[in-house]
Design brief:
The chain is built from nine helices and eight strands. The chain is of the alpha+beta class. It has a domain of about 130 residues: Alpha-Beta Complex (Spore Coat Polysaccharide Biosynthesis Protein SpsA, Chain A), CATH 3.90.550.10. The strands form two sheets. Strands 1, 2, 3, 6, 7 and 8 form a six-stranded mixed sheet that branches.
């Protein structure tokens, strides 16, 4: 990740959080590195635990007022100490188990579960070179996504828990078929089906272990994108069309 902070943006957000006792975390508009379009102007998840970024790749002038968001983007966000202490019991709150992927998602939902809000504000805060942390290790990133989302799924109360497992099984099947048919030429990617299988089983096991210890998350206490049954099926059959549907719903958030 490459990030440059805009001057005085941190001071602005410290003041915002101090003046709102119900605000547990916040972010502003994060620009792409060329500063011509938005990298993130708010982050949302769906009931399928898919991630959808508000105004990603679009104009920085589209966000007109503060709006609630599922979680604050980890590239540049600010958190109220009181909120972190409440959800952690005063303990460390960075989720080592969710290294690099989905940690900010889970943290955001825990903040909503604790009775706080998270908002995105129409303040330009930084520019961000998305994906630079993983540009040479994509297999590792995919493994972490499999593991971390499936762990979160076990902790969640999503009505589509089974569908979420099917979505990842579909993805795993596609990679296995590509490997069998010899469609994967890059040596690093040839091991990917086995790596994703590992992430699949590890994520479910980790989630079950945490759930048995009493950890859980109510995703419906956060602002999320609702998914109809036909849309859940669409995610399995045609993921690109599903993403387009979710983008339409996301655009309605600001209207």
């Amino acid at each position: 990740m490459t990030l440059f902070q805009k001057k005085d943006s941190l001071n602005q957000f410290v003041e915002i959080l101090e003046n709102d006792p119900y605000l547990g975390a916040a972010q502003g508009i994060i620009l792409n590195y060329d500063e011509k379009s938005v990298d993130s102007a708010g982050e949302f998840i769906s009931e399928l635990l898919t991630t959808h970024t508000l105004f990603g790749g679009e104009s920085l002038n589209l966000l007109k007022e503060p709006i609630p968001t599922t979680f604050a983007n980890a590239a540049y966000s600010i958190f109220k100490v009181e909120a972190i202490e409440k959800i952690s019991g005063g303990k460390k709150q960075i989720f080592d188990d969710l290294f690099a992927c989905f940690d900010d998602h889970l943290l955001g939902m825990k903040i909503w579960n604790a009775g706080y809000k998270i908002k995105v504000f129409p303040i330009v805060t930084a520019k961000h070179n998305r994906g630079s942390s993983f540009k040479k290790v994509i297999p590792l990133q995919l493994y972490l996504i499999f593991r971390n989302v499936l762990m979160t799924n076990e902790l969640s109360n999503s009505r589509y828990k089974f569908f979420i497992i099917l979505i990842f099984l579909r993805e795993l099947f596609v990679w296995f078929i590509a490997r069998i048919l010899g469609l994967i030429n890059n040596p690093e990617y040839r091991k990917l089906p086995a790596l994703l299988s590992k992430g699949f089983t590890e994520g479910i096991k980790m989630g079950i272990k945490k759930k048995l210890s009493g950890e859980k998350i109510d995703i419906y206490k956060a602002p999320i994108l609702k998914v109809g049954f036909s849309e859940a099926m669409l995610k399995i059959i045609n993921p690109k069309l599903f993403d387009a549907r979710m983008k339409t719903k996301l655009n309605r958030v600001t209207n």
